[in-house]
Structures are given as structure tokens and as C-alpha cells.
Amino acid sequence: MDFDPDQRRTGWERDELTREVMDTFHREKKRALRTMIRLRNRVPGSQVLGAGSCELCRVCTRQQGRPCRLPQLLVHSMESMGADVEATSRELFDHPIEWSDGTSLPDSYVIVMGLVCNQPDLPPDAWGTPRHGVAARPSARAVKAQ
Predict the structure, then answer these.
(1) What are the b/e assignments for 116-125, b being 16+ CB within 10 Å?
(2) pTM of the complete model
(3) How far lies 79's CA from each of 16, 17, 83, 119, in Å?
């Protein structure tokens, strides 16, 4: 998510900045997740690793101490599986992750998701038709090297 100079300005009220960023983040995260779920559906036995918490349900039953309503669709975060998301973004995509200082925005934010599968290479048609918003796709070889 690239931010223009007006968005990056300093002097935001913390609540205003949080609302602006989080609205954009959640919208883009949902779009990226739909792409990853389509990929998972094309690669049998694969599992999506998401960015941050699973947001498939409006109210999470796990947070209420009950079993997940959709265990077959549950998306674990990369962080919860021990992945170093900052290193992944930097090393596989040559894009360091930037953070807000609470009053201004960096040049961009990055949403990093992954797909875990037991295949040496993804099928050529696994990604389907490229969609707007998918910035880069590492090769299976690059991922295996990690």
C-alpha cells in the first residue's frame, strides 16, 4: 500500500491515523486473502498463512473459548507459525517493512502472506490470472531456500 505525500504528512491525530490506516489495511488484507484462498484451492493440501489475525468471521468463537466455526478455512498468521515476516519481505521481495511512528505514515505498508504446501513446484496455472494488488510472487525455489 503506497501512501501519497499528503497521507504521509506529520501531525495526524493518533486516532485519525489509526482509523485511516486500519481501514485501508483491512480492505487490502481481505483482497489479498481472497487471492491466497484461490491459490490454496488450486494447490491440494496447501495452507494459507495470513497477515495478522484470522478475520474470516465477524465474531471469532476462538476468542470466546469455543472451537472455530470454520476450521477448514482457518488462516493462521505467519507470525504465529514462527515466520520472520520482516526478513521474508526484505530477502524474498527486496522490500523492507516500514512502520508508522504514530503521527505520520511511511512511504508504504506491505501485507505479506504465504502458502505452505508439500510440492517442489507450484503448477503453472496455480496463480490463475494475475490480479491487481499482487505485487510479487517468489519462485518456489526462492521459498525452498529459506
Answers:
(1) bbeeeebeee
(2) 0.70
(3) 27, 24, 5, 22
